[in-house]
Amino acid sequence: MATDSTYVWNGLDKNGRKSQGEIVATSVALAKAQLRKQGVVPKRVKKKPKPLFSLGNKSIKPADIAIFTRQMATMMKAGVPLVQSFDIVADGLDNEKMRALVTAIKNEVAAGGGFAASLAKHPKYFDELFCSLVASGESSGTLEVMLDRIATYKEKTEALKAKIKKAMTYPIAVVIVAIIVTGILLVKVVPQFAETFQSFGADLPGFTLFVLGLSNFAQDWWFIFLIGFIAAGWGYTQALQRSKAFKDKVDALSLRIPVVGGIVHDSVIARFSRTLSTTFAAGVPLVEALESTAGAAGNAIYATAIRQIRDDVTSGTSLYQSIRSTGLFPSMLLQMTSIGEESGSLDEMLGKVADQYEAQVDNAVDSLSSLMEPIIMSVLGVLVGGLMVAMYLPIFMLGSVV
To answer: ∠ at Cα 247 (246, 253), nearest 5°?
Structure first.
């Protein structure tokens, strides 16, 4: 399958003036065809050379898509034409890959394609939920309103993910540093003490002998442990990507971990409520909205449950009864869903549930961060302090004998 590339071109615009720029296409011929559709007479088109050092060529992250959506919503609300909005947004982007993506979408739209259809050609960055909401906005003539809703949804979702990631990054980083420091002490520092202890001519304390044994073991096998650690990390990542059964087990396990499981549960409920609220408010039929929500659940256990809810709703069961039958969703969500169905304000009620659970996740993450700090410091103290005590204990004992 041909991949998109960036081409630089120069030629004459619609008014016969010299012009130049960049365009994304799968070949030179298609690049020229796209330019002609835009009224440009291309003189020279060639593939853009790649920079020798591409450290600044960052990948496209979900946060970049959220920012792009918000900027497009702002432009559309201001009355800026769609194609011109793409140009304005692309000019303000520092990420080369993101700029190329926006340019590619603009060229497809300028060539006569629909906005949603153009986004659907890039499924890596725009999922079915995103494309279906944009398509709904296009068909109803409320694209700017829909983009604003999508932007709000993306911003809240990414803020929630960033909050959880930030809480997890700190303890993981500290643990990794602790392991590295302990390894260095065992491989480089402890052997220096061992040479000194050999001249004592006395029996060493059991704790010191234990640490010296660990040091010898680490010196002999540290490279094997390093390779094993890297291989385990790589294998875990590959298993998550390739084995659905393994991923399902990991998702199920994540819900049962003390403290962390509660945060995962609340974040899934918040994501379910926010996604269903956004899609339902956009006029997407409930069955299709549930399918999109299942894809955005973020947990295999709940994704399966949401698809079961979709099947029950399709057979005529109310949403409240369908959710209740799974036994996985909290009573607050059930009651708000029941009220929303009866009052005709389901999107509003689900939005309030999402706000509530997002706030709970924020509080839980803050509490977890506060709890982890003293635990981490204690672990560091035991690791590093224990090694130092083991090394100086024979010296203290020797001093007391003298």
So the answer is: 90
